[in-house]
Amino acid sequence: MASITLEGLKKTYSGNVDAVKGIDLAIEDGEFVVLVGPSGCGKSTLLRMVAGLESITDGTLKIGDREVNNLEPAERDIAMVFQNYALYPHMTVYNNLAYGLKNRGFKKDQIEERVQTAAKMLEIADFLQRKPRQLSGGQRQRVAMGRALVRDPAAFLFDEPLSNLDAKLRVQMRVEIKQLQRRLKTTSLYVTHDQLEAMTLGDRLVVLNGGQIEQVGTPMEIYARP
Ligand code: ADP
Ligand code: ADP
């Protein structure tokens, strides 16, 4: 895993929309940072810039010691977990997990080892020959996380990964992500507008407002009422 450093990161969309107005933030190696704030405050723009899905207007983005501003998403050594699972419906769980590694030219036995290791960690080893539709929502979410995990990335980005789940499953997955984080110590940047999710998961919360950081602190510091 690696740190993520944002220095004066800015995004201006065409039409002079200043979506992100100069963010300084250092996410430590192994730290889980949750980005919260009202709709339109710039959360997904910021996450997409880190992922490489959106160009950076100004500022510097580093993964570890490496400046990655101009690298393609695939070259950034970062894995993104989406809310819609983004699983291939026609492929088995095994092949869903293996697909990204195959594309990256991994050898068959390396793929086997990584898939089996991730499957054990996520407790989906018994489902590897099933198709996504034969899984529960929670199991599918774990496969989606497995696809990120097999790549052994420097960091994880989460874009509202639980927002499509029903309330019960959301609670369950929140706990699972927390447990996984404790075990794996993944450097993570997680976007949500669910306050409970933010409080449960975050080592540190960053509150964005109008494209700027309004507050940074532990869940206690942010949400504790006097
Ligand atoms: P959030 O994820 O917090 O809801 P966004 O990052 O999606 O916020 O949006 C931040 C601001 O940038 C909003 O004012 C939004 O309308 C604007 N915005 C987002 N995407 C685009 C785009 N592709 N072109 C122009 N403006 C955009
Ligand atoms: P990775 O393993 O790095 O996520 P893949 O090569 O598996 O990359 O997928 C390439 C891109 O296609 C990724 O951005 C991924 O999120 C997207 N993708 C994967 N599965 C689906 C799907 N079922 N529907 C739409 N997009 C998908």
Automatic annotation (TrEMBL):
Any single GO CC term annotated in Swiss-Prot or TrEMBL for this entry: ATP-binding cassette (ABC) transporter complex, substrate-binding subunit-containing
Gene Ontology terms for molecular function: ABC-type transporter activity; ATP binding; ATP hydrolysis activity
Name recorded for this polypeptide: sn-glycerol-3-phosphate import ATP-binding protein UgpC
Coiled-coil intervals, chain numbering: none
Keywords of the record: ATP-binding, Cell inner membrane, Cell membrane, Membrane, Nucleotide-binding, Sugar transport, Translocase, Transport
Keyword ATP-binding: yes
GO biological process, one term: glycerol-3-phosphate transmembrane transport
Residues annotated as domain ABC transporter: 4-226
Domain of life of the source: Bacteria
